[in-house]
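Example record used in the benchmark description.
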Amino acid sequence: MSRAATVRRVDALFQAMETDFLLREQFITGPSQILMDYLASPSVSQEQAALTDRLIYSVFANPKLLQWFQEYVHRHTDEVPTGGQFLADFCEATVSHGGQDVVATLLEGSVAETGIYGLTDDLLHYFVNLHVSQTICADRDGKPDGEPGADQEDVGIQARGSTPFVTSITWTTYVHVQGDGDQAFSAEFVPPYAAVTLNALARYAVELQARDAFRLG
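Model output (structure tokens):
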């Protein structure tokens, strides 16, 4: 029940951010704190929030890691992996896809004994559920190619159709990354109400990376 409630609240947050510009900007510039506040989680120090945000940005600034995550979620729609399994797979993907900024963030957190706070199994469940709902919604013939598995709660996420607010914004508009060309998440990964915030978060992450904001120390 706790996980189902958390997943629904995260989905409600993304739906609210579709049209609430201020809330969306607050999330983009401080995602971990907004998540914790919205989910009524215990407060954390500024150092913990900053480190968690930096980890999120370093992932979102890496198009190859974003593409890996999309494919990973698609492969696991029948059964959401455990947190330990996801962590092992994510570490392997980080090494394979040049995630130096991700490694640097984790190293700095380890040295400072700050730790990464707020990135729980519930968020993985949210994205898997969201992707399944989008897959079902996008199937115009009534033959979904993804169904919730036994380990995946039916939390009632409803993928909505396109809205005028995001008709020209998709993952294919992902900004150019130096040396890698244009990289993008498939627009089929999430519905438009979530994509509008995730797109903006990705653009902001790339801007931070270009300003050398992920440098150690």
